[in-house]
Amino acid sequence: DKISFINLPSNKQQVTAAAFSSSGNLLITTGTDKQISVWKIEEGKTELLSSLTTNSIVRSIIITPDEKKIYYATESGDINGVNLSDKSSNIIFFSKSTPALCLTYSKELN
């Protein structure tokens, strides 16, 4: 396999989480600026598709295999889901004492 590097526009903010879609066509990034960015990746080139602002710094982020939703966990203790088509969001879980540090996705709930 060939190793490729992806150049994203310069950002002076620290990146706190990143996730590739299972197809490798999308990259989700977030940082200390509380912005979540959705990037399209094609032949080593990137295009910013959308971005949204969160209320707290994101520590973990995932994208569903169908590339329709993202879920993220913040420093303030909430886990949110966002529909990428209309950017609608909802809080899935909230904990004041212990924020989630890592998220994973499974279609199977058995």
Shape: globular
Q: Largest sheet, described in full?
A: 4 strands, antiparallel
- The strand count comes to 8
Mean pLDDT equals 85
Count up the helices: 0
The helix-and-strand class reads: mainly beta
Distance between the termini: 35 Å
Order of neighbouring strands in the sheet with most strands: 1-2-3-4
Radius of gyration: 14 Å
Strand-residue fraction? over 45%
The low-confidence parts are: none
Please trace the helix and strand order, writing H or E for each element: EEEEEEEE
Please sum up the structure shown.
The protein is mainly β.
Characteristics:
110 residues; mainly beta; 4-stranded antiparallel beta sheet; 8 strands; globular
Explain the overall architecture.
The protein is mainly beta and 110 residues long. The mean pLDDT is 85. It has no helices and 8 strands. The protein is 0% helix and 48% strand. The chain has strands at 15-20, 26-31, 35-42, 45-53, 58-63, 69-74, 78-83, 89-94. The strands form 2 sheets. A 4-stranded antiparallel beta sheet has the order 1-2-3-4, with no helix packed on it. A 4-stranded antiparallel beta sheet has the order 5-6-7-8, with no helix packed on it. It is globular and about 40 Å long.
Please render the helix and strand layout as text.
Layout: E1 15-20, E2 26-31, E3 35-42, E4 45-53, E5 58-63, E6 69-74, E7 78-83, E8 89-94
Antiparallel strand pairs: 1-2, 2-3, 3-4, 5-6, 6-7, 7-8
